[in-house]
Amino acid sequence: MRIAIVILNWNGEVLLERYLPSVVHYSEGADIYVADNASTDDSVKFVKTNFPKVKIIQNTINGGFAKGYNDALKAVDADVFCLLNSDVEVTPNWLGPIQEAFDLMPEASIIQPKILDLMRKDHFEYAGAAGGFLDQLGYPFCRGRIFQELEKDTGQYDDIREIFWATGACMFIKKDVFVELGGFDEDYFAHQEEVDLCWRAKNRGYRVFYVGTSCVYHLGGFTLSNMNPKKTFLNFRNSLYSITKNLPRRKAFLIIIFRLLLDGIAALRFVVQLKFTHCAAILKAHLSFYGNFLRMYGKREKTSFIKKYYVTKSIVWSHFVHHVKNFNILVKD
Questions:
Q1: Is residue 268 part of a domain?
Q2: What is the per-residue pLDDT across 74-84, written as a single tens digit (0 to 9) for each?
Q3: How many domains does the chain have?
């Protein structure tokens, strides 16, 4: 099985200098690419000078995460793509458990490893943690991370299990599956495009797994921090995009109505916290969603929709009302 590790870069010379060495050192047998999204710094020059064996793909524009990978992966020949953030430090033998999982589980089409916080290496990291899930209203969360609550890694998720979505910070996906799905939806630009990709894969019968015996460390927040209003905008809008595209029509409409109410409550919460820019971001997210609704509705695939896409009815209710901070004590439905 040929694995190609593809690192999407935009003005990230400082990240490549810091984290690319671990990828080169610990990824024997894999081809390594840096896909540059029209950077204006010396990223490309740095890679050419210091890592001549790393292949470079130069995109003509910065089309964000979605278009950046869609364009770059057309030039990559491999059985499996590993989409890896430029701010990820990998560990010895991180590829071994992934390769073994693909070999032993032919039904696995997408896999993610354990994602720990680079700054607190005994804690899970926000983007992906120990595998992604959804609640019934389409809100994403992870084992090891519920909203801003990050669990300490005590080995509780050193397992291999099926999940609903894998993080784009470190995602392994079979090339033929990526091509069949048409890649990422470029209208997302960035954030939650991996949720949509995995949801579409699930609707087609493919399976997504977490392999906790492989571990990487993620810095996170370099491009957009969790507290950036633009990230709030993209997360709220793109979540509504995924609901529209990937659920049965009647269910999607009902959930969007509920989300209008809950997202409004979230906006009021930001007002109470004096985070007015985040409140405005939620409003803009809904306005953008309604303006693009017909476009998203037109992307609904002619396929059956999986019925069991969620593990709990409301992560919002569980966390903010019942103060659930740990995935393992979450009430499963």
A1: yes
A2: 999 999 999 99
A3: 2
